[in-house]
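For reproducibility, we list the full input for the coenzyme A complex.
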Amino acid sequence: MDTVEIASGRFVLRPCRDVDADWVYRACQDPAIQRWTRVPTPYRLDDAVGYVTEHVSQSWASGRAAPFGVFDALSGEGLGTVGLVSMDLPEGLAEVGYWVAPWARRRGVATVATLAVARWAFGELGVKRLTWLAEVGNTGSRAVAEHAGFTVEGVLRDRIRTRDGSRADAWIGSLLPSDLKS
Ligand SMILES: CC(C)(COP(=O)(O)OP(=O)(O)OC[C@H]1O[C@@H](n2cnc3c(N)ncnc32)[C@H](O)[C@@H]1OP(=O)(O)O)[C@@H](O)C(=O)NCCC(=O)NCCS
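The corresponding predicted structure, in tokenized form, follows.
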């Protein structure tokens, strides 16, 4: 799949590239990102370099995932990542994922970026149902999903494998094209 850049008001979404390794590394030291996402722990600079040089391009090339960095439109500062994973375009399905750097929180980054990716997924990729999944208890992630218009549908028991090898329940929600106001 060809990469794209999405302009969304205060923010620009584009795939991360090699120059982004430093801020991704700094952001992923954050305990909340390590607690609630699947980033490696401890998170080393090599992990960020591998992410921006290999993971991002391989994801786009495979057509199974579409990861974006989120940047301040004026300064170019890196603020977070948002993207589609588990894409199954013939079925019209994709899942959204996000994290926001500690220095950029509570400014609407996750909500605005999620909505921008959703509009792109519905309009350009023909996605018919966007899924959101988060470990039960991740109230920040749930608040973002609800702000963006997702309907929380319930709990999936033992859906998530945790870092210590045990299982955790997940909240699941969905956003449909008809949920978005034009
Ligand atoms: C959850 C996270 C993505 C939120 O990013 P953000 O850019 O700060 O979110 P927004 O600014 O768009 O927040 C929108 C609303 O969600 C709510 N919200 C955001 N973070 C919250 C938190 N930690 N706890 C409770 N509510 C929260 C607020 O109501 C907020 O609106 P307000 O600031 O006007 O009150 C960010 O804290 C993060 O990266 N957490 C760690 C990684 C993670 O959990 N990723 C999701 C994995 S499923």
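The chain is about 30% helix and 35% strand. The longest strand covers residues 78-88. Both points were considered when choosing residues for closer inspection.
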